[in-house]
Amino acid sequence: MQDISLHILDIAENSIDAGATRIEIKIKEDLKNDRFILIIKDNGKGMEVGKKTKDPYFTCKTGKKFGLGIPFLAQAAEECNGRFSLSSEKGKGTTVVAEFQRSHIDLKPLGDMGATMTTLICGHPEIDYLFLYEKNGQSFSFDTKELKQELDGVPVNLPEVLKFIKEEINEGLRRIKG
Amino acid sequence: MPRLTVDDLKKIKEQYKSTLTLREGGYRAKITVHMGTCGIAAGARDVMDALLDEMAASDTKDVIVTTSGCAGLCSREPMATVEIINEAPVKYCYLDPEKIKKIFKEHVQGGKVVEEYALVVGSETSY
To answer: DSSP string spanning chain A?
Structure first.
């Protein structure tokens, strides 16, 4: 994966497969402790957690023999003096946490978060997505649940609505990230 | 969170309602962009992005775009499947933003399969 936003898209696709109805994506840039923290939390069916989670030849999906999404993200974090963890409860959901050293030379750029969010929303508009970005006490958040209320019956996956969402997210991030 | 400005929202709602009667028959076509790990790593999100831009630019409202997981042909990603009502689905492979725009114009809007990018039609016949 070229950037963090593609890892996010990939992990969130797992949440969709797990039948989640809400997916929360949070990024925290902790300047004081030099950490870049990514949290992806869903309310899907959950999965078994064990030593094998990061094993590429482990998957919990039927009809598949391996899965590379989680090993890729875990590797990216570990290469940046960071760590990866996954917790899950059957029937409740799964939370993935990837921590990176913020100043690490190998830390990938964030990439196009607007495109990641519109791809998720367009693919599965029935799911609610929260995206939160925090840096230096400032934050930007985007929640499709709130947007859907404002849209008042207009589909959230309408091309012009998606275009608006992408611009809003990328503009919001430009303000915060500087 | 950032909000739609009142004007933006009003405009989108009015447009939506004015074309509602035209869309009562539902969607005419479905495009599925394969968004597994393999697809994403090969550039599927850029394909999706180009497709959404094209749809917004052409004001298309009778086509639905969705995503799916790995189709088992990782080496040919990015892939997409075009299904037009009453026609056999067509799978396209090795896509990029320019190719999907061409497929959208010629196949989805024009009704003619772009054979040079097609992998299979239905599930058996190959080009």
So the answer is: --SHHHHHHHHHHHHHHTT-SEEEEEEEEETTTTEEEEEEEE-S-----SGGGG-TT---STT-S---HHHHHHHHHHHTT-EEEEEEETTTEEEEEEEEETT-TTPPP---HHHHHHHHHHH-TTSEEEEEEEETTEEEEEEHHHHHHHHTTS-TTSHHHHHHHHHHHHHHHHHHH-
Residues in B touching A69 (Cβ below 8 Å): 37
Residue B13 C-alpha, separation from nearest chain A C-alpha, in angstroms: 6
Tell me the mean pLDDT in the region B105-117: 94
Which residues does A contribute to its contact with B (CB < 8 Å)? 1, 6, 9-10, 13, 17, 61, 64, 67-69, 72, 112, 115-116, 118-119, 122-124, 140-143, 146-147, 150-152, 154, 157-164, 168-169, 171-172
All domains of chain B in start order, with CATH: 25-126 (3.40.30.10)
Residues B28-81: tens digit of each pLDDT:
899 999 999 999 999 999 999 999 999 999 988 889 999 998 888 899 999 999
pLDDT of A36-80, one tens digit each? 999 999 999 988 887 677 777 777 766 666 678 889 999 999 999
CA distance B56 to chain A (A): 5
Q: What percent of chain A has pLDDT over 70?
A: 93
- B-chain CB neighbours of A58 within 8 Å are none
Residue of A1, A7, A10, A143 to mutate, interface with B, max B Cβ within 10 Å: A10
In chain A the domains, ranked by start, together with CATH numbers, are 4-177 (3.30.565)
Cα nearest neighbour of A72 on chain B: B37
Q: What is the pLDDT of residue B39?
A: 95
Please give the ipTM for the structure prediction.
0.86
Q: Is the pTM of this model over 0.90?
A: no
Nearest CA in chain A to B68: A123
